[in-house]
Write a structure and sequence with these properties.
Layout: E1 4-8, H1 31-36, H2 43-52, E2 55-59, H3 66-81, E3 87-91, H4 94-108, E4 116-120, E5 123-125, E6 132-136, H5 137-146, E7 155-158, H6 166-181, E8 186-190
Parallel strand pairs: 2-8, 3-6, 3-7, 4-6, 7-8
Antiparallel strand pairs: 1-2, 4-5
């Protein structure tokens, strides 16, 4: 089933300072698999919505490619346009953050910890070159304590937003307040 999206209206602004995204290698054995996913057919529509609106809700069935593809679409567009980009993508569970990061790094033909990484409690595979970081909700909540404006971050994806907990509800409230201070920050809620 195709992914559907709804966007909350907000005026776009210039992006904060972030790292430039290296383009993925040209030879990619996963290209055909990626293009077969339903999300790939909505790539242009999703990117337009994310660029035009500060908050976007992305809804799609399990296996449509929301989790692995949409953050990559954002990275690929930034790389193609030579724009800096830094994406944080939360996952509700540690194993999800690790396995999705591994899959996305493999799809990009890169080693884990370079452009794509993860951070979970007591373990991190990332570097100064990481521009797509998968992390648990708790890791992002703790990062917001130290960096309440998420300086340098251009996009935040909250995946599995329907899996509510006190921690995820608190994170959404903090992000709501942050969006008022950072009009250039893009928030994508995925379910």
């Amino acid at each position: 089933a195709p992914a559907h999206l709804r966007a909350a209206r907000s005026a776009p602004r210039s992006s904060p300072r972030a790292e430039f995204v290296p383009p993925p290698p040209h030879a990619n054995p996963h290209r055909a698999q990626r293009e077969a996913l339903p999300a790939f057919g909505h790539r242009a529509e999703l990117l337009r919505a994310i660029a035009a609106h500060q908050v976007v809700v992305i809804e799609g069935s399990t296996g449509c490619g929301k989790t692995t593809q949409v953050p990559q679409f954002v990275l690929e567009e930034a790389a193609a346009e030579g724009r800096p980009c830094s994406v944080l993508c939360t996952q509700p569970r540690r194993i999800s953050a690790m396995s999705v990061a591994e899959r996305v790094a493999a799809e990009r033909g890169e080693r884990l910890g370079a452009a794509v990484g993860y951070s979970i409690r007591l373990e991190s595979k990332s570097s100064a070159a990481t521009c797509l970081l998968f992390c648990t909700t708790g890791i992002l909540t703790r990062r917001l304590k130290d960096d309440p404006d998420l300086e340098g971050v251009t996009h935040v994806f909250v995946d599995e937003v329907h899996e509510r907990s006190m921690e995820s509800d608190f994170l959404l409230m903090v992000l709501r307040d942050l969006l008022r201070r950072r009009p250039s920050l893009r928030l994508c809620l995925m379910s």
